[in-house]
Amino acid sequence: MLMFAVQDQGIGIAPEKMSQLFNRYSRLHSQPNDLTNGLGVGLYITKRIITAHGGDITVDSEPGKGTCFTVTLPMHVPETSIAE
Fold it and tell me: Which CATH number is associated with domain 2-30+37-78?
């Protein structure tokens, strides 16, 4: 398996919002007047691509301390999925 992490030291994600993180069209606003652009599909698409390749993505976050996304992917393609 190949594992890598992407970490920031930003505002973090509130525990009650973690379950929404990988939902399609989900946008987590840090403040009521947050004007961040986006459709809310980036993490949804990311998770779909990673799981389609047999991997997993997890998130660890603490408000005020940042967020860490960890991706795990297999390093080989299973023989049954090789197209002839």
Answer: 3.30.565.10
